[in-house]
Design a protein that fits this description.
With 411 residues, this protein is an alpha/beta fold. Among the domains are: 2-110, Methylthiotransferase, N-terminal domain (Rossmann fold, 3-Layer(aba) Sandwich); 124-232, Transcription Regulator spoIIAA, CATH 3.30.750; 356-409, OB fold (Dihydrolipoamide Acetyltransferase, E2P). The protein has helices at residues 11-26, 50-65, 76-79, 81-87, 102-110, 141-145, 153-165, 189-197, 212-215, 219-225, 244-250, 256-269, 288-301, 327-350; strands at residues 2-7, 30-31, 40-45, 69-74, 92-93, 125-127, 129-130, 149-150, 170-174, 204-207, 234-236, 274-281, 305-310, 356-364, 370-374, 379-382, 391-400, 403-409. The chain has a five-stranded parallel β-sheet with strand order 2-1-3-4-5, with helices on both faces. A five-stranded mixed barrel has the order 14-15-16-18-17. It has a three-stranded parallel β-sheet with strand order 6-9-10. Helix 13 packs parallel to helix 14. The radius of gyration is 22 Å and the shape is globular. It starts with a strand and ends with a strand.
Length: 411
């Protein structure tokens, strides 16, 4: 039987999709390159915002129309299984908290195969935990993933070493909130990273998203670990709003001032560290003054990347019951935040023009280019055909608001 895994959403979901693909291969099934040529499609769903949920529903209808057998995984399989059943009444639904049963569920439905094709096993994503310790008032993912359940550090180190041994050069450490890893089992993220760094291989580690309040208790140890040149000097720390009153309604457990204290501490040790953050526009009850504070935060923070999302009410969350901001107002505020962040990001990037840096080629770009990542994870578009996983010296020659442009040079 031929299968195809179609993942959506966060890095964590893509990493789990890769793991599910490995399980399918172990059952003897053959991976193909598209849903069209597959007998069964694993639809690894996301429902973080309303637009994504609608996209999932459309995709389910398309797969049903095409007569595909579908295995539905990811967050919708947990929190909106009824909506899945309406579109795909004959599908096999396996939510994240049942991934340990995935192989038995699939073999029980389809049996096992006898594929002799080689397992591609190309994933560079390593999920380290399920769930989180947060209780954000707008988050439906909490219902899907539950509380924090960290994976065994011994198992994670074995998987990490295996990835390095197979030649993986960039490894993405990910979770719903990587900063709280290990709190439930008596370890922490810095200690896990130290064990991974005992591997003497040539690689780069990207640490995944962490919330400010989970970063605070480990910040000094993390800064020490990040001194290893094989960890990108990059952190993704969502702030979500510049207004303390909005942060309180979000149940975010920190203030804007505390967020800036964290960033200041990071930059005091590594001035060149790249900071990525997230902002939500139009959160329930957000006033013009709240919005102004978010604009001011973006201007003051000068982050390298700011991801702007318009608030999307999710069923069952506290925020869904709050007074909603009109969609037109939210749209206008999102546009203003985007305009501000584009100015800041371009100003950051223009300062990099003329620099020479070591970078790792990580993906294929557009129009004959490759994308390389610098030591602080800035993307550089290169007119190159060098293979992914190659370390190169690059000179930055130009930029756009969201990426750098450069060329390779001799070492």
């Amino acid at each position: 039987m031929r299968y195809f895994v179609e993942s959506y959403g966060c890095t964590m979901n893509y990493g789990e999709g890769d793991q599910l693909s490995e399980k399918m291969h172990e059952l003897g099934y053959e991976e193909v390159s598209s849903a069209e040529s597959a007998d069964v499609v694993i639809l690894n769903t996301c429902t973080v915002v309303d637009t994504t949920e609608k996209k999932m529903i459309r995709r389910m209808s398309e797969l049903r129309k095409d007569g595909k057998d579908v295995i539905v995984t990811g967050c919708m399989a947990k929190v909106q299984a009824n909506r899945v059943m309406i579109r795909l009444p004959d599908s096999l639904i396996i939510p994240p908290d049942r991934y340990s049963e995935f192989s038995s569920c699939v073999s029980g439905r389809y049996g096992t195969g006898c594929s002799h094709t080689e397992n591609k096993d190309r994933s560079n994503i390593l999920p380290i935990a399920q769930g989180c310790l947060g209780n954000c008032s707008y988050c439906i993912t909490k219902f899907a993933r539950g509380g924090l359940s960290s994976y065994s550090p011994d198992d994670l180190v074995r998987k990490f070493d295996s990835m390095v041994e197979k030649g993986t050069k960039e490894i993405l450490i990910t979770a719903q909130d990587t900063g709280c890893y290990g709190v439930d089992i008596g370890v922490d993220l810095p200690s896990l990273l130290r064990r991974m760094l005992e591997n003497k291989g040539e690689f780069m580690i990207r640490i995944g998203m962490m919330n400010p309040n989970s970063l605070m208790p480990i910040i000094d140890d993390l800064l020490e670990v990040m001194n290893d040149p094989r960890i990108y000097r990059f952190l993704h720390i969502p702030v979500q709003s510049g207004s303390d009153s909005v942060l309180q309604r979000m149940n975010r457990s920190y203030s804007a001032e505390e967020f800036f204290g964290i960033v200041g501490r990071l930059r005091s040790v590594y001035p060149e560290i790249s900071i990525s953050t997230d902002m939500i526009s139009g959160f329930p009850g957000e006033t013009d003054e709240d919005h102004k504070k978010s604009l001011e935060l973006i201007g003051k923070l000068k982050a390298d990347t700011v991801n702007i999302t318009r608030f999307s009410s999710r069923p069952g969350t506290e925020a869904a019951l709050m007074e909603q901001v009109h969609g037109r107002i939210s749209k206008d505020r999102s546009a203003e935040l985007t305009e501000m962040k584009n100015k800041v990001e371009y100003a950051n990037n223009i300062r990099a023009v003329g620099r020479t840096e070591t970078a790792l080629i990580t993906e294929i770009g557009k129009e004959g280019t490759m994308i390389a990542r610098t030591r602080n994870y800035r993307p550089v578009a290169l007119p190159s055909s060098l293979p992914i996983g190659t370390f190169v010296r690059v000179r930055v020659t130009d930029c756009e608001p969201t990426y750098l442009i450069g060329r390779t040079i001799d070492a």
